[in-house]
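Lecture notes, continued. The same structure-token format from the folding unit now serves as the input rather than the output. Read the line below as a description of shape only.
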């Protein structure tokens, strides 16, 4: 066996071991980095051993892994740098699915199983039981994804034609498994928003004072 072929086998075995390791990892960023190194090793194996199909396959996977790695890094940085008042569009919308809904459409009813959270890009929604309107920029339905019962506490209806972005519970779980630290920051932001809503509801209204004379 020639020296070149021996070196090829070394790269091949290292690449195969790293590829198997990547399948056993849960955090997506380390997974992508390990898979990228595995692809590089297998490309070298394919080149040195003249295994053209292997060379083509793993060479094609290199830019895919680089793209996915950069996407995850950008998302992690965005979540780490996010403040409580950071617009949701800056850190969550890239992972949400756009859809439209007609005026009068009932998006969910009180007691329904919670399967998604919504971001309102345009139009107006209304929470029926408390008769509260929601304007563009509102995030709604996130609490149901984190409760044990996964039930809607209020009904939601479109007051006008709406453009919405949806994030399913499965997508939220995927974001968490991509990076547990990212998932922590997402939940922290959601809880902080909920606490601000609770605090606002506890602020007593100040009665107006009639300063006019008799």
């Amino acid at each position: 066996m020639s020296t070149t072929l021996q070196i090829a086998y070394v790269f091949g075995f290292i690449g195969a071991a790293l590829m198997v390791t990547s399948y056993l990892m849960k955090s997506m960023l380390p997974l992508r980095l390990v898979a990228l190194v595995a692809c590089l090793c297998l490309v070298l194996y394919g080149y040195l051993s003249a295994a053209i199909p292997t060379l083509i396959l793993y060479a094609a996977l290199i830019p895919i892994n680089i793209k996915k790695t950069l996407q995850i890094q950008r998302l992690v940085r965005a979540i780490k740098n996010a403040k409580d008042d950071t617009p949701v569009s800056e850190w969550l919308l890239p992972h949400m699915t756009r859809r439209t809904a007609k005026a009068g459409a009932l998006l969910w009813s009180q007691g329904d199983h919670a399967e998604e959270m919504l971001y309102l890009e345009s139009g107006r929604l209304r929470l029926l039981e408390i008769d509260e309107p929601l304007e563009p920029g509102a995030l709604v339905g996130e609490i149901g994804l984190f409760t044990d019962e996964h039930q809607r506490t209020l009904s939601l209806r479109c007051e006008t034609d709406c453009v919405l972005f949806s994030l399913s519970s499965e997508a939220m779980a995927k974001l968490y498994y991509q990076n547990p630290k990212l998932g922590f920051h997402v939940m922290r932001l959601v809880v902080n928003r909920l606490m601000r809503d609770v605090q606002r509801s506890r602020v007593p209204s100040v009665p107006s004072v009639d300063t006019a004379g008799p």
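Point for the exam: Confidence is low (pLDDT under 50) at residues 205-214.
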